[in-house]
Amino acid sequence: MGSSEPLKVTFSSPAKYWTDAVPIGNGRLGAMVWGGVAAETIQLNEDTLWTGAPGNYTDPDAPKALAQVRNLVHEAQFVQATQASAGLFGGPTQVYQPLGDIKLQFDGSHFNYGAYSRELDLDTATARVQYTVGGVEFRREHFASNPDQIIATSISASSPGSVSFTVSLDCALPDHRVHINNDHKNQIVLIGSCSGQQPGSTGIQFAAVLELEISAGNGVVSRLDDDGNGLRVEGADWAVLLLSASSSFQGPFTNPANSTRNPTSLALLAFQEVAKLSYSDLWSRHVDDYQSLFRRVLLQLWTGAAAEADDRAVAVRTTAERIRSFQEDQDPAFVELLFQFGRYLLISSSRPGTQVSNLQGIWNPDVKPAWDCAPHLNINLEMNYWPSLPCNLRECQEPLFDHIQALSISGSQTAKVNYEASGWVVHHVSDLWAKSSAYERDARWAIWPMGGAWLCTHLWEYYTYTMDKDFLQKTAYPLLKGCASFLVDWLIKGPQGYLETNPSTSPEHVFVAPDGKQASVSYSSTMDMAIIKEIFSALVSAAEVLNMTEDPLVQNVGEIQSKLSPTKTAKDGSIMEWALDFEDPEVQHRHLSHLFGLFPGHTITIEKNPDLCKAAEKTLYKRGENGPGWSTTWKIACWARLRNSEQAYKMVKHLIQPVDPDKTTIDFEGGLYSNLFTAHPPFQIDANFGFTAAVAEMLVQSTMLDLYILPALPREKWPNGSVKGLKVRGGLTVDVSWREGDLHEVGVWQENDGQEINLVKKMLHYRGRTTEATISSRTVYTFDVGFKLVEEI
């Protein structure tokens, strides 16, 4: 018996706060639906609306500053090195901007409503609002279509002629105007621009077009009298609103002033494409497209008591109530919902051809959002894409690869000028314009040239999950080579004879220097070395697949690998965060940078180095449970890698706590908002994705040779369940079911893409039992708990 709860985020009242509204998106266009009755707001985003223009990410004075910092580090003058590193700082990022709002106003009778419900249906990616006024049932429906590139809203009523409202467009950006399209009286046009690089310079231009259609038999549409820039509907049976939007953005290296794109024409063009489609056609096309991704994975968790499950289905609870009660009931069906919500958000915020999912995905109401909504590369952007491969959404990762490609172009100039190095480099934060230089203000985050390298680990991971040799050869390998080339040049011989990074930081953290003062710059942080080892290993492995082992860079990297400083253990038995065993002034710091080798990396494993795993466990206990949402989900994944189900589940439980929506200041306590957005606070989307990936890691882990089944299953909390459609390394798909805490069946197969039959050997592991299986590309193999082959089809 599976979960009886539908995959819906539910509410019993309109949104009071932005984090009560529900997100819809098609990868490029996003909206937050508030569900107001007398007055409704649908807040809009388009993923290319950013301030600024392409920048110059080089500094010819940086090499001199670099030499000074390196000398100070060599002399163990870490405080002075931290101060001198200001000479390596770059500038700020540009800022992600909101598009505008659809405003709906209904007549005064709508203040007295009843039977209200609001939901986001994850299975159809559709938001719905229902209520009654005077015995008439009103229904609204919203979705964002990827195939037709529009946001659609339908408004209907149970009684003919009952739909009356006004609609208008608004925008928070100062440079905008709204008008009715003279060629189409039922279209409202919003035109505006984002601020440019300098005051008075041309920024990205944008346009949004809202088209209104009403029932043919009843209803009248007229222009509003007050400003003439809105429309009024009177006495219709139903109404449909379609919104299209576009911008002048023509790539990260084209100045908006030189763009040849006409946003208004492009926004209007979308309506030519959908003119012959009814609302039901649009919805069906949207659902077919969305479900082709979403329905690849099914997770069901239950305790096993049928009566209990039936009782749970009868008691309808809002999502906010389920969050508040989780510490007591620990409802496994809520874990299902939150897991699938992460997959929903990734499908909705990252599709082929869009921009990367930023710090808030694509949803942002603010002209000055927290941290600029910019992609942060020292955990956040990478975490956004952690679920894409194991959770069967490989297509959603394409924007990340496009972004890496752009970063490699700007980053090659930064490497050449700032560091006199070959290859390409990126630091801890980027933006629409592929910013590659260091950030500003503080060495804790600015002095970290490892952002591009961490991103490049995703390239090799993509190959290991998909076995796509064409991707490896044409996309991954050239980018890996450029990244590795920089790292080879960046490494210098250190005081202990190893090749070291200098300067080096552990992201956003500080240590106590020998003189008793706090500093952040030293050499060879543990994270630096772990990332470099991953990149060098990936390059060598990729070269072996592509028969390019004679490449001079590959041979050089092969020789260098043994000269990299090893991961070390501190006096207290934990993993050392820096090359020296400095005192840590904040042992419960939010970042787990020195555990990169455990997760998402592969240099610390139970099989290869159990002593380091014990040190990693000690490190996690030291870091504690508290932290922002992304830190919590990283801890879940780390505990899962250590196959410690108790601690992994403890962090699952820690995340699922309500957040006060009134609290808008930056804090580090995590939690969930009522719409399931994860909190730093404020809202950051990374933990939503991190949670989904971490739960998958609790259920299945893999290497190119091994498949670990239920490695961190909390058997008492999720005694019964199944997961279908998870991906594992080697190009395989896995279904797993378990009963009363023990494995029931596992199914393994290769996707058949019409190619020749391939055979993959895999060692299957479950609770000390191991067997070797040979998986053909045209056969599904099902094994029981003892790994006896029970079915082969």
Automatic annotation (TrEMBL):
Any Gene Ontology biological process: carbohydrate metabolic process
GO MF annotation list: alpha-L-fucosidase activity
Top-level taxonomic group: Eukaryota
Domain annotation Glycosyl hydrolase family 95 catalytic: ranges: 278-699
Domain Alpha fucosidase A-like C-terminal as annotated: residue spans: 701-766
Domain Glycosyl hydrolase family 95 N-terminal: 10-250
SUPFAM superfamilies: Six-hairpin glycosidases (SSF48208)
One of the Pfam families matching this protein, by short name: Glyco_hyd_65N_2
Family annotation (InterPro entries): 6-hairpin_glycosidase_sf, 6hp_glycosidase-like_sf, AFCA-like_C, Alpha-L-fucosidase, GH95_cat, GH95_N_dom
PANTHER family with a match to the protein in the record: ALPHA-L-FUCOSIDASE 2, GLYCOSYL HYDROLASE FAMILY 95 N-TERMINAL DOMAIN-CONTAINING PROTEIN
The name this protein goes by in its record: Glycosyl hydrolase family 95 N-terminal domain-containing protein
Source organism per UniProt: Linum tenue
